[in-house]
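Postdoc handover notes: sequence design on the structure in folder B. Input tokens:
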């Protein structure tokens, strides 16, 4: 069905009360903003960006550790490109990001995939390379696949990967989740299966729709959520059937299970979320950069783990406030002069809103 037809259907079943719908993916927030969906939906539907930006929630202490490795240990550090500007809490005299570490002589390599990191390590056997692996399930499965190929020993992984659903589970358990329906991430469901989100209708009585990354798919998901709310039936509706199948991708899931185990993990600004992170299992833990370089949290760093002073990213990430209610939004925090990680990443809600004209 076309976007126009879905939109017509949405207006035909528009609720007579306020309905708040959260998305869990920076890609979805981009589709919503690029297509201007907020301006064409019925007025009483509010779309809330949620915890879908891996750069935003990547532990500050992991980025700090990567910077220290690059500057003090002569280790080459590889990361996905939008991690390079994510800021850490240090004095202005020190390198505040991987990009600044590069300007100070560190070897910082933006890379598009873990395979590229493995190739670099193979071509530079005399150098240690640490791959800072931040991301969600979709980017973590390729890390597991790369490790399963037994990459060279001079490569190690600083694993900062996270599962998406535990953040939503934590939000719902806290009683602070003020949404009436959830758009679940299509690419995560492609890997892990839509069943991961079944706890929301089952335990919380809220509808879920899995969406892809076109305005049509997003509108189909919104239509499904409004229909479920109207009819009082709640389930996980797969509105991205071309890619999402029951059980997800068995090969990717089994690789993840073989190479990694799920552990409690810190999210930047949010603290520890139970069973939300990954850790390498033996024998793959020989590639664990934390073990190889003895990386420990530094007790003297007072703002370790926190957002930069004044930055409301943690509130934005959990959908408690929209980006433009942060005191620093647009003054002085902009994509050119980012203060928090949500203004750095292409998947950060602040950057997406600013880039699409929310002033
Ligand atoms: Fe953080 Fe900047 Fe967003 Fe405010 S506008 S929440 S400072 S990233």
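Designed sequence:
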């Amino acid at each position: 069905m076309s976007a126009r037809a879905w939109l017509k259907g949405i207006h035909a079943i528009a609720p007579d009360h306020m309905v708040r719908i959260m998305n869990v993916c920076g890609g979805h927030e981009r589709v919503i903003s690029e297509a201007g969906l907020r301006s064409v939906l019925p007025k009483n539907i509010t779309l809330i960006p949620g915890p879908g930006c891996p750069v935003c929630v990547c532990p500050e202490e992991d980025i700090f550790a990567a910077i220290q490795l690059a500057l003090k240990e002569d280790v080459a550090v590889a990361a996905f490109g939008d991690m390079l500007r994510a800021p850490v809490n240090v004095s202005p005299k020190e390198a505040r990001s991987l990009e600044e570490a590069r300007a100070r002589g560190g070897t910082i390599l933006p890379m598009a995939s873990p395979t590229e990191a493995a190739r670099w390590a193979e071509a530079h056997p005399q150098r240690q390379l640490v791959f800072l692996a931040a991301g969600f399930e979709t980017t973590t499965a390729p890390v597991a696949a790369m490790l399963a190929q037994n990459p060279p020993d001079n490569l190690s992984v600083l694993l900062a990967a996270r599962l998406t659903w535990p953040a939503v589970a934590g939000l719902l358990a806290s009683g602070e989740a003020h949404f009436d329906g959830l758009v679940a991430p299509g690419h995560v469901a492609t890997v892990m299966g839509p069943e991961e989100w079944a706890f929301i209708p089952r335990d919380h009585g809220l509808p879920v729709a899995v969406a892809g990354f076109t305005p049509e798919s997003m509108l189909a998901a919104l239509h499904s959520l409004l229909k479920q709310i109207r009819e009082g039936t709640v389930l996980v509706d797969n509105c991205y059937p071309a890619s999402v199948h029951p059980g997800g991708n068995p090969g990717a899931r089994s690789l993840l299970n073989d190479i990694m185990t799920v552990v409690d993990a810190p999210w930047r600004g949010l603290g520890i979320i139970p069973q939300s992170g990954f850790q390498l299992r033996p024998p793959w833990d020989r590639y664990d950069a934390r073990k190889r370089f003895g990386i420990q949290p530094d007790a003297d760093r007072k703002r370790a783990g926190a957002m930069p002073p004044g930055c409301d990213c943690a509130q934005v990430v959990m959908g408690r406030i929209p980006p433009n209610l942060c005191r620093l939004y647009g003054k002085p925090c902009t994509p050119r002069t980012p203060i928090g990680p949500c203004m750095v990443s292409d998947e950060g809600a602040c950057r997406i809103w600013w880039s699409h004209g929310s002033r």
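Context for whoever picks this up: Residues 215-231 form the longest helix (17 residues). Don't rerun without checking with the PI first.
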